[in-house]
Amino acid sequence: MNISEVKMIQYSKSEEVFNIKLLQSGTETSIGLKSKTFSIAMRKSAHTSLVKMHNHTTLLVIYPSSGLFTFNDLSNKIIEKIFKYIRKGEKMNKMSSRIHTLDYLRGFALLGIILVNVVGINFINAEIAKTHIEGIYASFLLIFIESKFFSIFSILFGVGFYIFMDRATYKAQNKYALYFRRLIVLFIFGVLHSFLQPGEALKFYAIAGVILLIFLHLKKEINLILGLLLLVAAIVLDAKLLETMPYFILGLAIGQYGLIYQFNTNLRKWIIAWSVFLVLTILSVSLLMMYYAPPNYILAENMGLHGEQFVQKKMFFDHLVTMTSPFISCFYMLTIIIVVQNDIGAKLLAPLKYYGRMALTNYIFQTLFIIVFVKVFFNGSVSMLN
């Protein structure tokens, strides 16, 4: 349909369906607002605006190649309805294809979680690190890996929650029933997985997922503020178990702000954000190096730290790790987002995308792989460096 050929527009309302008739030269096209046809027809609009002249309201839909498309003398109620469908059509056009950047991020998070889980599954902890090299590796995990990748995974859970509920609403599905079904499946997998992985997180994700429903219909600004305040509270209280919920809420807010549909646009803004968190990450790592404390008493003795002196230094260092984790996590995420916008970067990191598409399956498969691998190649016993 060539919009520029439209000569007249008529509209009528019957049985809650708003019909638009486009009268062209010798032809007539009818579009129902509740039909997908209208959404599809309006998806390519570059800009929409309202113009009020005296007592009449005109909706302008500006097409890049076809000029203006106007709806004249419409009531505000009808205008709002048209806008609703235009926005929905444009958003669903963006959502019609999978958001690949999220797959890259999920795959990246899963790979980081492997490094943490291989330690937990084999009951290895930093307390038994005996050599200087083992101590360095344990500290590396603490500073750059632990909590960072689970934070990313938690944010992505909140983003996924928003996308799931939004798509279910658009498709007129019972979103709550579908969502609870997913949470039940997630909880069951979590319980089963806990027999293999002592630090299992899925069942806690399922429980937190129920609480997340409370925030679904809150304004994006409120969710952003609440998420940040709860995260700060969890950090100040040094309550790592309470950090999951704030990240869920922040992920939901990211979805509400529409940032997930802007990964391929505004590259300059993404780079600015990345630069800010690069500086924050450098400052964070510098502080951690300045106040570094070894992971256990054995290595502390070698550094000349004894008794209460080591305990106080270790407590402060661990708290500093918790405080700086959000900055490093955001830096990781922004790095992936920017790199995959480049064709070469996207191809190089393509394995992450495919790995992240089946996040739950691969999360559980990782555990099985670690157990079998250690059993076969290390006779069931590994050290920190193995």
TrEMBL record:
It comes from the Bacteria. It holds the Pfam family DUF418. The keyword Transmembrane applies. This is DUF418 domain-containing protein. The keyword Membrane applies. Keywords: Membrane, Transmembrane, Transmembrane helix. The chain crosses the membrane at residues 104-124, 136-164, 176-196, 202-218, 225-241, 247-264, 271-293, 320-340, 360-378. Residues 293-378 form the DUF418 domain. It comes from Staphylococcus felis.
